[in-house]
Amino acid sequence: MVTLNDVAERANVSKMTVSRAINHPEQVRDELRTSIMQVMQELHYQPNAAARALVSRSTRVIKLTIFEDMDTTEPYYMMLLAGISNELNRHQYALQLATSNSYQVGECDGYILTGIRQKDYAWVEQLQQPVVFFGRNQQGYDYVDTDNYQALYESTRYAISRGYEHLVFVGIDVDEPFEYDRETGFRDAVTESGVSAQLVKLANHCHVATDYVQQHWAEFPKNTAFVCASDRLGIGIEDGITLNGGKVPDDYGVIGFDGVLLNQIASKRLTTMQQPLEVMGRAAAKLLLSNIQHPHERQDQEKIIIKSRLSTAESTR
Amino acid sequence: MVTLNDVAERANVSKMTVSRAINHPEQVRDELRTSIMQVMQELHYQPNAAARALVSRSTRVIKLTIFEDMDTTEPYYMMLLAGISNELNRHQYALQLATSNSYQVGECDGYILTGIRQKDYAWVEQLQQPVVFFGRNQQGYDYVDTDNYQALYESTRYAISRGYEHLVFVGIDVDEPFEYDRETGFRDAVTESGVSAQLVKLANHCHVATDYVQQHWAEFPKNTAFVCASDRLGIGIEDGITLNGGKVPDDYGVIGFDGVLLNQIASKRLTTMQQPLEVMGRAAAKLLLSNIQHPHERQDQEKIIIKSRLSTAESTR
DNA sequence: AACACTTTTGCAAGCGATTGCATAAATTTG
DNA sequence: CAAATTTATGCAATCGCTTGCAAAAGTGTT
User: Fold this and answer.
1) Can you tell me which residues the record assigns to a coiled coil (chains A, B) (predicted)?
2) CA nearest B236 in A: which residue?
3) Interface test mutation site (partner B, options A48, A102, A269, max chain B beta carbons within 10 A)
């Protein structure tokens, strides 16, 4: 292994000068610095991260902890990963992946947390490091989230504007803030417009939504639009409608939420509120890094809320 | 920060004894060890990873490097991640994520590489650490892969066994071993059966496949089955058929490959060869760890080949 | 009880880098 | 041009832990 000392000897300077050439270039004579850089190249010198971390107390590692069984394999997270990873790389931080139940091995400079449910907050509190949430929380932690209220409000308004007269909100059966926000967005939109509406909460799976439509088909007059809390539900609902002989989008409309399935299935063009997950990932990474670099500058909870964008397709007229 | 010394003082032993209690429990008197363990608990002692790595020359970090633009957001990788992450956690290793173009920050004990193309091998060779590939390679590196030949051979045979009389292989237009294997599996199966067949290679996107069917519709007599190199292509093909008024599965069959979209879209029940990605991820992690722990035991290239499983659904009769 | 063991614990050195302080060189100033 | 100041480099200590060897304690044998 090539060490600072090796470089120093070869460059005829002390290892301190080499160290400074790397970390504080302005403190080293230009000429000398370039010659040191060259030696580093020749020797393929790579600073030892462990040694650095030991003395500087900074690992340059950020952990993304996903509080959900990873075998559910949400493609959702993949886009998040892309955003986070890109941003961290720009700042020369490494991204480490962990799940809630994973053995806590290795240290890090901060955490990005996602998929957190109420029961997990105890775990979070015991963390002694900067934390940024992906998803709203009422505990005062900084977070990045999409505007769930706006998303459902807007998609509901859109459905109404397309002439659908009966609205169904198909939510997810969890007790979490994001779900309330979505529901409230829907409620406000229908109340304002005075159209008839109903709500249901289902487990977040296609077939559950399909079954629901099958079993309650009588409740849905023509001109019903289903505003869903996820694309999965949207797709399931659409199937249910088709199986009952309903015509999408002429007689029934469907709007999803997330937008993660969009690029994958060309035919299933679901109208949906698309979350800019890559952007949100970047934002979370950026916020965390800023918290790490300026530990005391911030007093209040920082909230970065990024709007979802309506992406219209063939499941609405 | 709680250090070994703190624990040692509190437990009235030297820090060496504490260290041994952790790393070589059998060398410490049972009674003493349990009392040390207790002190560690009380003080919430966590060994400093950097210090450990510095002296032991092992970081307990594995890097998964994905050689593909991550913004393509293949859900494929998510399942892989799950498998790798689970296995690494069992062995108390951390998983670090990197892309080919990401700044190489931090050290690791080994690499799992996926999405590698011919042009990337130069980068790999310069690595000075154990490497396991995800996907076949002819360079002598250990790898884990699904049996691409078997997968396409089997799905083609299946299509033939269901009575389809004209076979179309819809491949991906890349120059990689895995693609040849698939093609060869298809060729062998049709040759053996003597059915008529044709091949095409397309970019791996739904709409490309849909367009292809539209433009070549005249070439496909009734009783044609499309055997595809990915689920995306399969879904695109199916759409193309439907748009042309073809009946799936009665007059046209479609078989995909991967199985990653299966659980996501209930209605689009594509018959497909399902890769057990979680298992494959585990296998890759296990193989890498064994290479790390027994550096010289192995002479030849180790190949772990895991069969895909046919999952029949509504796109074949 | 004295010897040769084996088992258990402690000491000192060092992994590769960075921090604080001291020194040397270069530059400015009166 | 010597003194004061700025800029550039080097020295020593240290981060928390593990390795190699030495010392101490315990065990058994004659």
Assistant:
1) none
2) A266
3) A102
How far in angstroms lies nucleotide C2's C1' from the CA of residue B28? 29
Instruction: Show residues of chain A in contact with B50, CB under 8 Å.
Output: 49-54, 59, 107
Q: Which fold has domain A148-274?
A: Rossmann fold (3.40.50)
Torsion from C-alpha of A137, A138, A143, A147, nearest 10 degrees: 70
Residue intervals of chain A classified under CATH 3.40.50.2300 are 61-146+279-306, 148-274
Cα(B98)–Cα(A55) distance, rounded to whole angstroms? 25
Superfamily (CATH H level) for A4-47: lambda repressor-like DNA-binding domains (1.10.260.40)
Residues of A in contact with B238 (CB under 8 A): 267
CB contact under 8 A, B92 and A107: no
Assign A187 a pLDDT band (cuts: 50, 70, 90).
very high
Q: What is the pLDDT of residues A116-158, one digit of tens each?
A: 888 889 889 888 889 999 988 888 999 999 999 999 999 999 9
pLDDT at A145: 95
Angle at A86 between CA A73 and CA A19, to 5 degrees: 130
Sign of CA dihedral A165, A171, A176, A178: negative
Query: pLDDT tens digits for A192-239?
Result: 999 999 999 999 888 899 999 999 999 999 999 999 999 889 988 998
C-alpha dihedral sign at A61, A62, A67, A71: negative
CATH, range B61-145+279-306: 3.40.50.2300
